[in-house]
Amino acid sequence: PPGEYYISASLRNTDIMMLDAALLGGPSSGASGSTPSSGYAPTYFPGTTTAANAQRVTVAVGQEAQNTDFALAPVRLAKITGTVMTSDGKPLDGGIVTAMPISRTGETGLTMMGGATGRTSKDGNFSIPNVGPGDYTLTVRSVRIITSDGGDTMMFRATIAGGSDGSDSETASVPVVVAGEDLSNVVIITSKGATASGRITFEGGAPPASTNIRITSVTTDADGPGMMAAGGATVKEDGSFQLKGLSGRRLLRVGNLPSGWTLKSVRQNGDDVTDSGVEFKSGQDISGLELVATSKQTEITGGVTASNGSALKDYTVVVFSDDPLLWSLPFTRWVNGTRPDQEGRFRVRNLPAGSYN
Predict the structure, then answer these.
(1) How far apart are the C-alpha atoms of 89 and 170, rounded to whole Å?
(2) What's the rounded Cα separation, in Å, for the pair 244 and 194?
(3) pLDDT confidence of residue 102
(4) What is the pLDDT of residues 74-118, one digit of tens each?
(5) Exposure string for 71-109, b = 16+ CB within 10 A, e = fewer
(6) Which strand ranges, in their side-by-side order, compose the sheet holding 183-189?
(7) What Å distances lie between residue 144 and 161, 224, 230, CA to CA?
(8) How far apart are CA 193 and CA 190, in angstroms?
(9) Adjacent-strand bridge partners of 99
(10) In this structure, are residues 291 and 240 in contact, taking their beta carbons and an 8 Å threshold?
(11) Half-sphere exposure of 94 (CA within 13 A, CB side)
(12) Phi, then psi, of 342 in degrees rounded to 5
């Protein structure tokens, strides 16, 4: 969509392979190993490793941005090692530790462009190699590995601990500065997350008879703990739900709604927090949340014609709010796009009520 963007490039194959091996029971990322003394840091356009010095690229409607070449910056790489302990003094086994760059520009989207990851061993030790110079936040989430035997195939699935089963996820967030030298003996102590409870209500028709509706939460704070959805809870027959192990500012969303229904709003004490989210602090209990689902869905349909009046069948249509501030909301609902069907017609559904281009 038209707007202003940051561009970042990084080499991630090593980090991805390490995380995959750890989750599949391979070599632990907490094991000792050599770390290259030099390499390439995540680099922002026009060629800086510092988020504060990144430059935005402006893209107008129908424009192709030019002159955006830049080179990855060679730097001295470091390794971060340490131990993660839970709130009851036990080593955290199987936790995910992520080093997320901290943006000094006030624009949180920059911090989501990079991040190296390691996994804690049984004794709570972790190791994150190949970290470039900069300011980081070390975030910790506990992870549960679920295996299932499907005959000749063994399936693995990683989930964030905490959810509707009564278990509590523990998280932590610690700032560190990397200046080209290894950081050793970093001790991180996790704490129990907050609990959210409320109910879902239905507007515009009789409540659907469904027991599979789920409530999930997604972080809005790129510097905070957890860069992913934290568990989830199945809505009970009376419409109530409870989420555990939450931390930081999070958006609440609804999944598995029956056909014809969509999320309209999320309210806390009468205030609309659909796009701003709810702030959760360690050990806090927040109740009275209301998620409103509606059967009154919005829909935009149409087609596109060429300058000679002929109908086009190969294009992409993007619908975006008149208000540019809504474009940059976390997981924004105010920008959507689609491709046409075989007849060249497009359909965009479930945009929030408002004025769009």
Answers:
(1) 12
(2) 6
(3) 75
(4) 888 889 999 999 988 999 998 899 988 776 544 544 544 556 789
(5) eebebebbbbbbbbbbeeeeebebbbbbbbbbbeeebbe
(6) 125-131, 78-85, 183-189
(7) 6, 20, 12
(8) 9
(9) 116, 138
(10) no
(11) 14
(12) -65, -20
Q: Which of 110, 79, 102, 284 lies closest to 184 in space, CA to CA?
A: 79
Residue corresponding to tokens 């390691």: 118
Amino acid at site 250: R
Q: Are 37 and 76 in contact (CB under 8 A)?
A: yes
Short-list 215, 121, 102, CA closest to 162: 215
Q: Say which range, 61-65, 160-164, 207-211, 272-276, has the weakest mean pLDDT.
A: 160-164
* Cα 300 from Cα 351, distance rounded (Å): 9
Residues contacting 262, CB < 8 A, separation 6+: 293, 294, 297, 349, 350
141 vs 163: CA distance, rounded Å: 13
251-273: average pLDDT:
91
| Residue predicted with more confidence, 48 or 29 | 48
- pLDDT, one tens digit per residue, over 131-170 is 888 888 898 887 655 455 555 554 444 444 444 344 557 7
Contact criterion met (CB below 8 Å) for 225 and 207: no
Q: Which two tokens stand for residue 25?
A: 């029971």
Instruction: Tell me the average pLDDT across 311-324.
Output: 92
Q: Identify the pLDDT of residue 16.
A: 39
